[in-house]
Amino acid sequence: MSERARETGVTMTAEGTELPANALVVAENVHKNFGRLEVLKGIDLQVRRGEVMCIIGPSGSGKSTFLRCINHLEKLTAGRLWVNGELMGYRQKRGRLYELRDNEIALQRSDIGMVFQRFNLFPHLSALGNIIEAPMQVKRKSRSEAVAKARELLERVGLPDKADAYPDQLSGGQQQRVAIARALAMEPSLMLFDEPTSALDPELVGEVLDVMRDLAEGGMTMVVVTHEMGFAREVGDSLVFMDDGVVVESGSPAEVLSDPRHERTQAFLSKVL
Amino acid sequence: MSSQTEPVNGPGSPEPAPQGGRPAEPVTAVPVRYPERWVAAGFVLVLAAMFVHMLFTNTAFNWPFMFDHMFSEPVVRGVWITLSATVLSMIIGVILGIVLAVMRLSGNPVLVTVSWLYTWFFRGVPRLVLAVLFGNLAILYTTIEIGLPFDNYWMPWLGLDGDARFFEIDARTMLSGYTAGLLALSLSEGAYMAEIIRAGLQSVNKGQTEAAQALGMSRGRTLRRITLPQAMRVVIPPTGNETIAMLKDTALLAYVPVTIELFYQLQAIGARTYQIFPMLVAACLWYLAITSVLMVGQYFIERRFNPGQYGSIRDRIVGGAHR
Ligand SMILES: Nc1ncnc2c1ncn2[C@@H]1O[C@H](COP(=O)(O)OP(=O)(O)OP(=O)(O)O)[C@@H](O)[C@H]1O
Ligand SMILES: [Mg+2]
User: Fold this and answer.
1) What pTM was computed for the model?
2) Are B163 and B155 contacting, i.e. CB atoms less than 8 angstroms apart?
3) Residue B64: pLDDT band with limits 50, 70, 90
4) Which residues, in sequence order, are CB contacts of B227 under 8 Å at separation 6+?
5) What pLDDT is stored for residue B13 in this prediction?
6) Alpha carbon of A218 to those of A86, A156, A221: distances in Å?
7) From ligand 1's centre to the CA of A226, what distance in Å?
8) How many angstroms does the Cα of residue A62 sit away from the middle of ligand 1?
């Protein structure tokens, strides 16, 4: 953080927009349409460094789409989105937006880890192979360095003896933990989780949540779409309720969960709690 | 749970005994008989005996003559030409196929159209026609020159003398029979391989590309490291078929004409000696032998790219439990 940022609490981005200094993700009026379907209708959000933000909401409300906008897997239709002070997917010069090239976007994404509902491990690579792939290909790390880091990560997610296992030899919970290790191997400053436990048998949910809890305690900035209210209450610093493409309500998890102000939040919570 | 069973499992009552442990009577039953199988087998056996009898007694086969000439020097060289043409045209065809498939899926309208037109042309024209056509390409171009295009128009216009050609070769040497034939076969194969590889690439789950992109891998890297290797398992079996088909299609080289090719050589011997039939049989035997070797190769390649860890295709389709 620069001297000026410390004094004023504001940083200047490359193109001259002032952003709050402690915000890692800034979404400003984010809109997303798929053809004529309006999925996001103006999302304003800020995620502070070190914050764990949980997003809840009914199916189809646009949670996944918003998460995918953060790492530019989806292009915004309108609005702006910054991660780490960088405008995602674009360069702004003299008031005009220029699309970034494929490899520039890839570079931006390499700082953001993502964990999917369906794991999406690479089936033709072992657990170790999955983890070292991007560090070697993208960060140009040496094999030995990448392997050492990968083993450390496997240890951290509780799978030190599964390095040589292939994804279909692992249980769902183990696959998801490998997927988390794979994302962490890029040493991201932000982790996105899209319903990481929804595809798991109930008895496997805990092991994945434990890894995520450790990660949060280690100070990782996380945005977590989840239906695990217990996790949101215990681990989350903030809770966002989305419905129909807008943020209906946000605040501390305890507040939102026990004392929802909006009717829609109350209706949703009464169904899931 | 009904109120009658409740006391049985209720707190304090003894646990129910687990099942199992009783002696069992083995199943002994008379198996179903299939008399019609014996009838069918007898029938086939008689037909086979008749066929073998004919092989030995019909003088048109002239076996001694066939074995004498089947391994003669020009024929064996013909086998090598046939094999090299198969391997080379498949290699070029696969590379072309990858390029065309990636072009087709690129989303770039120019590349998509070019790829589509290419596939349309080379799948639409019979290979025999292509072989003859390429054999006659020298009519179109007497020399093949490498240089800047349309120089005969723009050089004078800019007030320059001479031409902008750096390199030239005589088309008849360049497009000699073998090269022309190889070109025809590989370009045609490229079109078929493009479709096979496109199907393979499309069979890979979209989540794979997304996961790779989310990790910061560029599109090219994602294709090389993630999508193509996974497409391989879908691509290899039909590619094996293509290779076998290609081996047989090298016989078309005879029409380019490529005189050193296997089928041409065998036919030539047959025509010269009036022993046409034995030489046709020799052709069958040679093609069968090479195809068998290729099939063994295919088996090992499939095993290599279909490692047990993620289940063979057969297991996926009919289930692996029956083994
Ligand atoms: N690629 C796409 N093309 C068209 N429509 C899409 C696409 N992706 C998502 N949608 C639509 O956008 C809407 C929001 O989808 P999204 O996946 O963001 O919802 P969600 O809140 O994550 O729901 P869930 O809890 O079921 O995962 C849905 O109506 C969906 O059909
Ligand atoms: Mg979703």
Assistant:
1) 0.81
2) yes
3) confident
4) B201, B204, B208, B209
5) 60
6) 24, 12, 9
7) 15
8) 6
